[in-house]
Amino acid sequence: MNLNYNDEVSPGDVIAVGDIHGRYDLLDKLLQTLKNTEAIVIFLGDIIDRGGQDIQVVERVRKLTEDPESEGLSGCFCLMGNHEDLFIEAVEKGSEELKLWLRNGGNFEQYAELQDHLDWFKDLPIFLTVGETLFVHAGLVPGKDPRQTIERGDYKQLLWIREPFLSFGPRFQSWNPGLNQVVFGHTPEGFQPYEIEDGVCIDTGAVYTDVLTAYNATVNTYFQTSA
């Protein structure tokens, strides 16, 4: 598989950012590359847990979603990941959910500060479409419109799914032939992004590999920052 790496960004380009997991150092480096490019940035979720700099990441990403012009972007969105969902349930449902969040890398030292952003977490979209590309944290149920998945109350599938999505892809022809690509995170395979049928995964396990990956969906190029 030949991936085209190029960090040139033009105004209006749509840039997806893989799972950050509390690595503010990598996020800051990436945003230096994107500053004043007038790009549109979409974070794919899992911005918290494991990396230790959770509140710094959340505050920076939230500010960008609320005021993208402050760093020279033309727009910024953050999707919900399974770790944001775990945190919401830890706060709202009690001890067992709190234990589950902690077992999955939750940062108890910043638990109180993160609660200040609870409403923001709860309002994060599950997926976004821009042109012919759909952005989601983990993936889609093959052949199923994600809106229907959410309406059935199964939104967690879009935050956690691996198989059969990784093997079969989104199967756009079954529900929206106007789409041709899904961009997702959640399932890293080392420090390189990889392709599936009609899709690309840009989670490169930043907390373990020290590599954070971004994808320019407008021109089909990748760029990375590393520690």
At CATH's second level, what is the architecture? 4-Layer Sandwich
The arrangement of helices and strands along the chain is: EHEHEHHHHEEHHHEEEHEE
> Strands of the biggest beta sheet: in what spatial order?
3-2-1-9-10
CATH class: Alpha Beta
Shape: globular
Secondary-structure map:
Layout: E1 14-17, H1 24-34, E2 40-43, H2 54-66, E3 75-78, H3 82-93, H4 95-103, H5 111-115, H6 118-122, E4 127-130, E5 133-136, H7 146-151, H8 156-160, H9 165-168, E6 181-184, E7 194-196, E8 199-201, H10 206-209, E9 211-216, E10 221-226
Parallel strand pairs: 1-2, 2-3, 5-6, 6-8
Antiparallel strand pairs: 1-9, 4-5, 7-8, 9-10
Helix pairs in contact: 3-4
Describe the structure.
With 227 residues, this protein is α/β, with parallel strands linked by helices. It has one domain: Purple Acid Phosphatase, chain A, domain 2 (4-Layer Sandwich), CATH 3.60.21.10. Helix content is 33%, strand content 19%. The strands form two sheets. Strands 3-2-1-9-10 form a five-stranded mixed beta sheet. A five-stranded mixed beta sheet has the order 4-5-6-8-7. Helix 3 runs antiparallel to helix 4. The radius of gyration is 16 Å and the shape is globular. The model has no long low-confidence stretch (mean pLDDT 97).
Short description:
The chain is α/β, with parallel strands linked by helices. It is 33% helix and 19% strand.
List keywords for this structure.
single chain, 227 residues, alpha/beta, Purple Acid Phosphatase, chain A, domain 2, 5-stranded mixed beta sheet, 10 helices, 33% helix
